[in-house]
Amino acid sequence: MDTFLNEKALELKQGAIRAMFDRAKNFPGSINLGIGEPDLNTPEEIVEEGCNALRQGKTHYTANAGLIELREKISQYLSRQKINVDPDKEIIVTTGGMGGLALALMVTLSPGDEVLIQDPQWLNYYSQVKFFGGIPVPVPVKEENGFRLKAEDIEKKITPRTKVLMLNTPNNPTGAVLEYEDLVAISDLAKKYNLLVISDEVYSTLLYDGMEHHSIISLPDMKERTILVNSFSKAFAMTGWRIGYAAGNRVIIDKMIKLQENLVACVATPSQYAAMKALDALNRVSEMTEIYRERRDLIVEGLNNIKGISCIKPKGSFYVFPNIKALGKTSEEVANELLEKAGVITVPGSAFGAQGEGYLRISYANSLDNIKEALNRIEKYTKQLVR
After folding, report:
1. What own/partner pairs with CB < 8 Å and gap ≥ 24 does 152-157 have?
2. Was domain 44-278 assigned CATH 3.30.70.580?
3. In the predicted model, is pLDDT for residue 158 greater than 70?
4. pLDDT bucket at 27, cuts 50 / 70 / 90
5. Burial letters for 346-381: b for 16+ Cβ neighbours within 10 Å, e otherwise?
6. Does 44-278 match 2-42+283-382 at the fold level?
7. What is the pLDDT of residues 308-323, one digit of tens each?
């Protein structure tokens, strides 16, 4: 009965990441290095706060923008990053980072507007932009630049129809982190060409080797042309709580709040109380980041010791993006064979755009023991391809 579906719905397809997970169900005992979420559980004190909210009857609607107490805590948290936003007018609590991205795109895109998106990049951006009437335009990044998005490459893709630039730092899938100088150059472009920047910073706490997070919204004259999107999912292992937030241009935030009223009313109330507790437990973030750093070091060293694979060390997130071109197969072929022959779940780089071909996305959100075993299995597989 697809005659009831509109044209946009007919074009919707399952993402390559979920498709890989569905295939993996047929291979029990596989080690999952494909998942894009923490394997760690939500810290107990945050869980308890959510349970207390339920027990105390905090189960009713909140304001469409979210609890003002939570928005005030978010504002205070952002101020530590030199981001000054009004909790009443410039912050909205959303259903995860994805909810924030969707709302921002829905209230800003008109049919035919072009949206610049790094390639390789998390492909949900492409799907959302297309569904909301925009045209995604890939901007290639290069391994020799550490997969960092460069202003000169962005400028080559700007046309009179360009309206939005999507940023994601630290990056999924590459782990790249934009440095302050990168953001200054990109902000100059945004002002020169009158672009709106949607800055996805959900991995902003997962940084290594002394890297600091800088947000483009904190730069001069950028708040008025930026929507910052963040989430509690990655930093606090709260993916299932479905809570994030957006901040920035108050006119856009106002329309996002009005649209949220029509879509979901508000984020689940107990999740909002849990999120407030999370912002009081920032020590947990550093503890989890140290766990991921140890895993990152292990997997990068292990991959670079496997013939036919090379891997640069990412500065953020919990992904590596190893180069597998020497194996002589497409990334999809390698990912499928690693699953079928080695029992290791990865994601083909081509799932993230044309520039991702020749790479795999591998998550180290898994235990050290599982990572060690996965590396052994990968090496056994590659020995059949590279002599």
Report:
1. 154/116, 154/186, 154/189, 155/189, 157/116
2. no
3. yes
4. confident
5. bbbbbbbbebbbbbbbbbbbbeeebbeebbebbbeb
6. no
7. 999 999 999 999 999 9
Q: What is the mean pLDDT of residues 93-99?
A: 98
Domain boundaries along the sequence of the chain:
2-42+283-382, 44-278
CA-closest candidate to residue 75, choices 208, 241, 246, 292: 246
Specify the pLDDT at position 223: 98
Q: Which residues of 304-315 are buried (b: 16+ CB within 10 A; e: fewer)?
A: eebebbebbebb
Report d(CA 65, CA 244) in Å as an integer. 11
- Cβ pair 176, 314 in contact under 8 A: yes
Q: How far is CA 145 from CA 30, 140, 175, 362, in A?
A: 33, 11, 12, 20
The residue among 386, 372, 316 whose CA lies nearest residue 344 is 372
Distance CA 86, CA 79 (A): 10
What is the signed CA dihedral for 164, 225, 251, 127, rounded to 10 degrees?
20
Q: How confident is the model at residue 387, as a pLDDT?
A: 67
Backbone dihedral angles phi then psi of residue 117, each to the nearest 5 degrees:
-135, 130
Give the alpha-carbon dihedral of 283, 289, 295, 301, to 10 degrees.
Answer: -130
Q: How far apart are CA 121 and CA 89, in angstroms?
A: 31
Backbone angles phi, psi at 118, to 5 degrees: -55, 145
Burial class (CB in 10 A: 0-12, 13-18, 19+), 286: exposed
- Identify the architecture of domain 2-42+283-382 in CATH: Alpha-Beta Complex (3.90)
Which structure tokens are listed for 144?
Answer: 């020799």
Q: Give pLDDT tens digits for 272-285.
A: 999 999 999 998 89
Q: How many other CB atoms are found less than 10 A from the CB of residue 386?
A: 12
